[in-house]
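Risk register update: the risk that structure generation would not scale has been downgraded. Supporting records follow, first protein first.
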Amino acid sequence: MVREISAGGVVIRHKDGDWWMAAIELPPGTPAAPDAATRAPRPKAKTILCLPKGLIDPGEKALDAALREVREETGIIAVPITKLADTKYVYVRSWGDGERVFKIVSFYLLRYESGRIDNIADEMRIEVGRAKWIRLEDAPKLLSYGGEKQMARNAVEYVRSHAEP
């Protein structure tokens, strides 16, 4: 079984009295990956909303990869607050060899610093239909994947239990 090691970010910002989180929509027509929690295929017509994440490059640290992926996939610059957790799951590639992949994703809680959401390079539009802010409180219901829903719940818990992160 192939192994993939990735990193991603839960980027939050406090604006207009609410906490907001950066999320990305996959481009229309993107084959839906199975939900890691249920292994059930996702309907292709449904919008897939997820967290920015991607493979860690050789020699790159997980946090650096998370910050890079956030910048590439959302257009915003963020700074680290804390590591949230790792998610682990197995999926079957829907492209190429159809091989089973064991994937680990390290997620970090990040604070928005600068930039405009969805201001991304044209070549990223293959991976990202659009990036947008969603209310952090709504994120566990809106995100498409079980592990990412849990990361959003972890972020909600963090902001509730800490002074301004």
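Supporting record for the second protein:
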Amino acid sequence: MQSAELRELTASWQEDEDKLTFIVLARPLDPSPSDLELTNEDIRALPMIGDVNLFFKNPREDPEFEVECEVMIAEPMYRGQRRVHAALVLLLSYACDKLGVTKESFVARIGAANARSIALFASLGFKVVRAVSVFDEVEMRIVDADVARSWPAGQVREYS
């Protein structure tokens, strides 16, 4: 990421083994059959529009272990198109399937006024479990196992 401002805002400047990031690219929403299989060159040409992150807090053996989820679409013209929903489902599925994270470990802390993000996480099985008035945010955790169980596993493809 070349933008110093975005690196600062997303904490992407730090080398941190406890953070997993997926970059969100602006792929066509309704791809034609020829767009379904992108080459590495095609991928490099897509604009980066945001990211989804997981922050691993405390060792896994610790009863306080949790994985905080965070999303950001920097480009306003790409918001509200379910791109971040798809990216977040892939990231959460990857963490469960490839890293062995349990769904009960996920937590999202969202500004109390951010109705769109709260709705996004609710659609994935998260529910507000407490309000943190000092930070004017809500804490959401997975409580709807049926919704969380329906996350589709994504295909992981190496990018070079």
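The helical segments are 4-9, 40-45, 83-99, 115-123, 145-149. On this basis the risk owner (M.S.) recommends closing the item.
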